[in-house]
Amino acid sequence: MSARLDVFAIPSASKLIKQFSSLGRLVVESPLPAATRELVSLRVSQINGCAVCIDMHTKEATAAGESAVRLHLVAAWREATVFTDAERAALELAEQGTRIADGAGGVPDEVWERAAKHYDEEQLTALVTLIAFMNTANRLNVMLEQPAGDYQPGQFK
């Protein structure tokens, strides 16, 4: 399987993707905990069915020392006891922000308030930006049919 477009081979597309990727690097440099970033990235990608991002974020999290148990349970985080209250709040916000069209009125206040209990404004800004970034990345990859399985941790650093 190959992608519909090789965006790195198209000069204008390559420029757009590089600029878009720079936003992702800013989120990585934010004070949002690395484990939370990977868990949220993985959950958003699971919801959107983005195999290449699931591949990437599972491998990045593993390389950073994340346990296989936690990674396997991200899809069922509500029933799992392996996540902190802060991570659970971030995963809930990620789901609500990803499934925004499913809930009239957007993200419910109580979901936001749970996240705001655990993250300061700078971290919340990074978290919301990450959720939006991942949703965009997922949509790009799904539309372009980017193949998954070959990602190596640190490949895009």
Summarize the structure.
The protein is mainly alpha-helical.
List keywords for this structure.
7 helices, mainly alpha, single chain, AhpD-like, 64% helix, 157 residues, globular
What are the secondary-structure elements, in order, as H or E?
HHHHHHH
End-to-end C-alpha gap = 25 Å
Overall 3D form: globular
Give a quick account of the main beta sheet: strands, pairing sense, barrel closure.
Answer: none
Strand element count? 0
Protein name: AhpD family alkylhydroperoxidase
GO molecular function, one term: peroxiredoxin activity
InterPro entries: AhpD-like, AhpD_core, CMD-like
Characterize the structure shown:
The chain has seven helices and no strands. It has one domain: AhpD-like (Up-down Bundle), CATH 1.20.1290. It has helices at 11-28, 34-48, 51-63, 68-73, 85-98, 109-118, 121-144. The longest helix has 24 residues, at 121-144. The two termini are 25 Å apart. The chain has 157 residues and is an all-alpha fold.
Topology:
Elements: H1 11-28, H2 34-48, H3 51-63, H4 68-73, H5 85-98, H6 109-118, H7 121-144
Helix pairs in contact: 2-3, 2-5, 2-7, 5-6, 5-7
